[in-house]
Design brief:
The complex is a heterodimer of chains A (about 400) and B (about 900). With about 400 residues, chain A is of the alpha/beta class. In chain A, about 35% of the residues lie in helices and about 20% in strands. The relative contact order of chain B is 0.07. The chains are: A alpha/beta (about 400), B alpha/beta (about 900). Chains A and B meet through α4 of A and α32 of B.
Chain lengths: ~400, ~900
């Protein structure tokens, strides 16, 4: 049977961002780096590390949310044409918007293309510059037939987190503990150089600058709620606005074998599922169940779980729901190097990050199966099952 | 891109100073430095290196940097003492540093170096010696001392240094206090005086008084006497301080805080220093030594040693605020005998109420301790001021003006004597057995100021011949005073709320003069007549300036009329006669007419065949802002606070404000200040109009940032020069004038409105918007997004104006908007609904839908003044307004 494998994963550091229309004078460390510049750096690094002939690449895929301005114009093709990407004109380019799930979607897409025998090498990337293009874009416009009825909470993610906190009775303290642990795990991973193999320094920045080594419950408790009066979600329990990009190289197993490449993960199965927009954060539950079923595996088989941390309340709701359905996720398998609450969540880039991270962790910890899953604004979940080829054999 | 906010109309006065150094980064020094950046000057702000930094390391420029940060945080409304920057970007003109490391590089290129260090003569002299060695030969050096004589400061310095040395005495806060005393000596080079005078006047916007090197100079010499006389007398006569402040505040033209309140405001700590050095400087026979000021001084020292330095001290000062258990605040006053505080409430003193009606004399024409106390204090102060002519100034005008600008007093001492009546004052002084000082003797019961042949004259004294004659007060070059014109002429057009004046050279000036300069049908009628007059083929007038001398340009449309009409409908009699709904419907019709009239007349002004310049000073809010937005250009005073605040009373701007502000935001987009696409300008306008608390400008420079002012608008830093410069500017426009083209709009329509409403839902959930805000915002979004339109369709100004009228009226039909209007009229504060509690039964969408949809017959604004039936209706409504307002009085 044909197989699609990840042979390499890299990303930029994730840098705190300030939306350009926020009226604030501050600026993030990657604010002056164009999103396609970030991608070009990553693509050329992938080519360098794998020594793959650039002309073997069938298509460059990019996941990115709010595609306009410098993030618009089918950026993937622009990256192909970018003088620093190292790709020839013969490579195709596709840019996809599936909100937060964008770059996991392109990995699934590339996997399927390879499995169909229509490509040997695909580069899957994701990028977001919140510093340059505000969330919802410069010109938010929405059909009133949709808004006002079904799609309340389509764009304000914070409210969806509040809704989940209410529904699953997640206390503010529980959210803050979860966030603090995420920062602690990320800080520890930084101290132990666990990100060294994946982060490509850019613009002088070498690490994820949203990680707060010194955060504690006292500090978190002092923050104001930002979405709802008398609510429980604060900036400290929401993933911070960040800029960044991530990229993985996919090939067919045969291609990897003939070129002597050593795959870090086999892409076993992917699934997606919709849910109510008002509680979009619960999306990973159904998506993961479908993906596990497709892979013929159970949650208990999973050794590594990357659950994107859009909000602490959202993650805790997902964990609670899994537990309710007898699919409890052991906490020591979850987001081992920290999650988006600490590292940041550049929307378009997060899917490729958690998928690439899951693959790396399989290698690093010598485990067999991993699940990477995330929620998506507007009410969706996506999930990917990965397998370690080395443990397999 | 040029920084428009730094643009003043091309008058080239005061341009010699481009680089300056301020040594001393205390409140005063940093305030001066900030105001210099406001004037477009590059400034070094230097202070000492803190001792602990020398010992332990740290930021050697820490003091200056902290001062800049402090000022960047402050706003004029909340913290005027620190709100030095008119625009935060001005901070980029300021380089923080320390004296040891940066004095040489800073002084090397400086045109002016001002010293604002502590009042210690040795430190100052040492600093001047260092500066002399470093500075350009013709660079001007000044001290901001308020206590040390000039001759003492320059001891040991060269002749060349002395030629270029003055005292520049600012008042705190330097941005807002209008007075700048420039103290000179015989040795000062006239060119130095000219440069500093012009710079202080045109660039810093100050009323500059060049004065002699006498103790405490002009304003403080009298001000300190006044305060000490009051303090001493308060102690001796056992007067309550809040009563003393009540009589020695507004009733006599002094700031409403009164003596003790003012000291709390500026900080009690400044008093001992200025007093001691004043005492050193004056002779023993000075009247200041004639009363027991030791008593007062002891009190001040006692308070200071107890850490009670005024409002900025945690312990308070003469007054303090206490929080009650239920969270409300209670003001307390100091008992001067026991040093304890006691609760105070609103005072109702008869002589104060009389003074409001009959002028300051009423304060004293009253029995009782308080009136006698006030009389003694004011009498002695006025006599003291009179005795200081000609010692501190030859011209009484200078002394009066020093108290206007230095103490925000409405009347200087001589003006106050005139207010009291010269004869009355002199008689009463004599009745007290006090001999009149020479000035009063020579005046021979004539008032100090007198209008002669339409010109304002004042007595000019000749003490050799013991005579005084009236001579006209000649204004400075570049100053045009509307009241001078009003004195000498009759208005071309006049009505209850506004008048039109001929200000010469074919230019006319529209003046508002209603209460708080609110706009009403009477104002519109005068404007309509004005347009007709100036549009005549043979009209001798070719340009219009809209300007007035009041503290605030205009506080907006007069809502009282609307409120009164709706209230009338609800009275029991009308209800009994079943007339309520009839009147209410008449009122809707009247409101609709009024909105149409305002739109039409403003639009006619914009399209008239002559140029119009709006020249605001102070607040220009709501309708007052809308009229400015229709002018060809705005010449704004440095302190202009403009914005559309209509949402606070539950309506949208209805006199074309939405159209014109949207146009400005589109211009902002073209200039690159707002990002691309159809939504950003709409969103910018939406946010600004919905949240006036953030969008009303905090200065004219800030108004550029917020799109109230645009390219082609200019700033006049000194309000005294505003009318002259507006007129000069309009004279450059009259030749070949063509009215502006109407703007076409491509607005994003209902899908953008849905997104804006979504944002409002989030605000509401967060508790930042009330349920009625959601309704008002929807109406505003409807206007600004163009209603039922698509981005592909083009809308005319008339289309948007039509939406503006319809949405205005639909909001007026909501009971909550009428409640908001009634509330602000009653309390002066906007009403905020209990956000979450109320109307929870309805969803936000239901609330939006509950706004009565109002579609009016389409009316096009034709750009012409109202005529025929429309003009008659306006005339009738103007008459009605006058009648109602007179009745209300």
């Amino acid at each position: 049977m044909k197989q699609a494998v990840i042979v390499e994963y890299v990303r930029t550091p994730f840098a705190r961002a300030v939306e350009p229309n926020s009226g604030r004078n501050k600026q993030g460390q990657l604010a002056e780096v164009l999103p396609d510049d970030m991608l070009a750096v990553l693509v050329s690094e992938l080519l360098r590390r794998t020594s793959i002939s650039p002309s073997d690449v069938e298509t460059l895929l990019t996941g990115c949310v709010h595609q306009e301005a410098e993030q618009g114009l089918n950026m993937a093709r622009l990256v192909v044409l970018h003088p620093e990407s190292g790709l020839p004109n013969t490579v195709g380019g596709v840019t996809v918007d599936r909100f937060c799930g964008s770059s996991m979607h392109v990995i699934a897409d590339a996997k399927n293309t390879i499995l169909a025998g229509e490509a040997d090498v695909m580069i899957c990337t994701g990028v977001q510059s919140i510093s340059r293009i505000p969330l919802a874009g410069w010109n938010p416009m929405l059909n009133p037939k949709i808004y006002g009825g079904h799609a309340k909470g389509f764009l304000n993610m914070g409210i969806t987190a509040e809704n989940l906190a209410e529904r699953y009775q997640i206390s503010r303290l529980a959210q803050e503990e979860f966030a603090m642990i995420s920062h602690q795990k990320a800080a520890k991973a930084q101290d132990e150089n666990d990100f060294e193999s994946e982060i490509i320094p850019i613009n002088g920045l070498t690490f994820d600058d949203a990680v707060r080594k010194d955060t504690n419950l006292g500090k978190l408790a002092g923050l104001k709620t930002v979405f709802k009066q008398d609510g429980s979600v604060t900036a400290g329990t929401s993933s911070p606005h960040t800029d960044g990009a991530s990229a993985v190289m996919l090939t067919s197993q045969e291609y990897a074998d003939t070129r002597g490449l050593s795959p870090i993960a086999i892409l076993k199965a992917f699934a997606s599922s919709g849910c109510e927009p008002e509680i979009m954060g619960i999306g990973p539950v159904e998506a993961s169940k479908k993906a596990l079923a497709r892979a013929g595996l159970t949650m208990a088989d999973m050794d590594i779980i990357e659950l994107n941390e859009a909000f602490a309340a959202q993650c805790l709701s997902v964990l609670q729901e899994f537990e309710r359905q007898d699919m409890t996720i052991p906490i020591d398998k979850l987001n081992i190097h920290g999650g988006a609450l600490a590292l940041g969540h550049p929307l378009g880039a997060s899917g490729a990050r958690i998928t690439g991270k899951a693959a790396r962790l399989l290698q690093q910890l010598n485990k067999r199966y991993a699940l990477a899953t995330m929620c998506i604004g507007g009410g969706q979940g996506v999930a990917m099952i990965l397998e370690n080829p080395k443990v397999l054999n | 891109m040029t920084d428009l906010s730094q643009q003043t109309f091309p008058f080239h006065m005061g341009e010699e100073i481009k680089k300056a150094v301020v040594v001393g980064a205390g409140t005063m020094g940093s305030g001066i430095a900030a105001h210099l950046t406001n004037a477009g000057v590059d400034v070094y702000l230097l202070d000492i290196i803190p001792k602990e930094v020398i010992q332990n390391g740290g930021d050697r420029n820490g003091i200056a940097k902290a001062a800049i940060q402090r000022m960047l945080k402050a706003t004029p409304a909340k913290d005027p003492l620190n709100a030095g920057f008119m625009n935060p970007n001005n901070a980029s003109r300021m380089t923080p540093g320390n004296i040891d490391d940066h004095l040489a590089e800073a002084v090397r290129d400086a045109d002016w170096i001002v010293e604002v260090v502590i009042e210690n003569i040795d430190i100052k002299r040492d600093l001047f010696a260092r500066i002399e060695a470093l500075k350009k030969p013709d660079a001007i050096v000044s001290s901001n001392t308020s206590t040390i004589p000039l001759k003492t400061l320059v001891e040991g310095r060269s002749d060349a240094f002395r030629k270029h040395f003055v005292i520049t005495h600012f008042f705190n806060p330097p941005r807002f206090m209008h007075l700048l005393e420039i103290v000179v000596s015989d040795e000062t080079d006239p060119e130095t005086i000219r440069i500093m005078r012009e710079f202080g006047d045109a660039k810093l916007g100050k009323n500059v008084l060049v004065c002699n090197d006498t103790p405490a100079f002009l304003a403080n010499r009298i001000g300190i006497y006044f305060m000490f006389r009051a303090i001493t007398e308060t102690i001796e006569k056992n007067i309550k301080i809040e009563e003393a402040d009540a009589v020695l505040g507004h009733p006599i033209g002094f700031p409403k805080e009164g003596i003790f309140g003012l000291l709390d405001l500026v900080g009690i700590g400044i008093l001992p220093h200025v007093t001691e050095s004043l005492l050193q400087g004056i002779d023993d026979d000075d009247p200041f030594c004639a009363f027991d000021h030791e008593h007062g001084l002891a009190l001040i020292h006692r308070l200071l040693s107890d850490g009670r330095g005024g409002r900025k001290s945690a312990k308070g000062g003469f007054y303090r605020m206490r929080k009650n258990e239920n969270g409300t605040k209670q003001k307390q006053a100091l008992n001067l005998e026991t040093d304890d505080y006691y609760d105070i409430g609103k005072l109702r003193l008869k002589n104060i109420q009389n003074a409001k009606k009959h002028g300051p004399r009423a304060v004293f024409e009253h029995d009782g301790n308080l009136a006698q106390f006030a009389w003694v204090v004011v009498r002695d102060t006025l006599l003291y001021a009179a005795s200081l002519v000609p010692e501190i100034a030859d011209d009484i005008v200078d002394i009066d003006r020093s108290l206007h600008g230095g103490y925000n007093a409405k009347w200087g001492p001589f003006e106050l004597i005139d207010q009291l009546g010269m004869q009355w004052f002199c008689d009463r002084v004599k009745a007290d057995g006090i001999e009149l000082p020479p000035t009063l003797q020579i005046a021979k019961n004539r008032p100090f100021y007198q209008e002669i042949d339409g010109r304002l004259c004042r007595l000019v004294f000749d003490f050799k011949t013991h005579t005084a004659e009236y001579a006209p007060w000649v204004r400075d070059e570049g100053v045009l005073v509307l009241s001078d014109i009003k004195r000498a002429s009759k208005p071309l057009i006049t009505d209850f709320s506004a008048s039109l004046w001929d200000i010469g050279d074919g230019i006319v000036c529209l003046e508002f003069h209603s209460k708080m300069n609110t706009l009403d049908p009477s104002t519109l009628w005068v404007l309509n007549q004005t347009i007709q007059l100036l549009s005549l083929e043979q009209s001798p007038y070719k340009g219009l300036v809209i300007y007035n001398e009041a503290k605030n340009f205009s506080l907006g449309a007069n809502l009282g009329l609307v409120d009164a009409g709706f209230k009338l409908a609800k009275t029991p009699i009308m209800k009994a006669c079943l007339l309520s709904s009839v009147i209410e419907n008449r009122m809707y019709k009247a409101v609709e007419t009024l909105v149409y009239q305002g739109q039409s007349v403003f639009n006619a002004m914009r399209n008239a065949p002559f140029p119009v310049i709006g020249a605001p000073n102070g607040m220009a809010l709501g309708g007052g802002c809308e009229i400015l937005l229709h002018c060809d250009g705005i010449q704004a005073s440095g302190e202009t606070y403009m914005g559309l605040v209509e949402s606070g009373v539950g309506v949208v701007p209805g006199w074309g404000g939405c159209v014109r502000y949207l146009e400005r935001c589109q211009l902002g987009q073209l200039a690159g200040k707002i990002k691309g696409g159809p939504v950003p300008p709409v969103r910018e306008a939406f946010q600004a109009i919905l949240m006036p608390q953030f969008s009303v400008s905090t200065s004219a420079q800030d108004a550029f940032t917020k799109h109230w002012l645009r390219e082609g608008d200019y700033i006049t830093m000194n309000p005294d020069r505003l009318l002259y410069e507006a007129k000069a500017r309009i004279l450059t426009m009259v030749e070949n004038y063509t009215p502006p083209e109407p703007t076409r709009f491509q607005l994003p329509g209902f899908s953008s409105r849905a997104a804006l409403n979504m944002a409002l839902d989030d605000f509401y959930t967060k508790g930042d918007a009330t349920w009625h805000d959601v309704v008002v915002a929807d109406a505003l979004a409807e206007v600004l997004t163009g209603g039922d339109t698509y981005v592909t369709q083009e809308l005319s100004e008339n289309d948007v104006a039509q939406l503006e009228r319809e949405c205005f009226l639909s909001l007026m039909k909501t009971p909550q908007t009428r409640k908001r209007i009634a509330h602000i009229l009653k309390t002066g504060k906007p009403l905020r609904e209990d956000s979450l509690a109320s109307d929870k039964a309805k969803t936000l969408d239901e609330l939006r839908a509950s706004r009565p949809k109002t579609s009016l017959p389409y009316r096009s604004l034709d750009g012409k003044p109202l005529s025929g039936m429309d003009a008659l209706t306006l005339r009738f409504m103007a008459k009605l307004t006058a009648l109602l307002m007179s009745l209300a009085k």
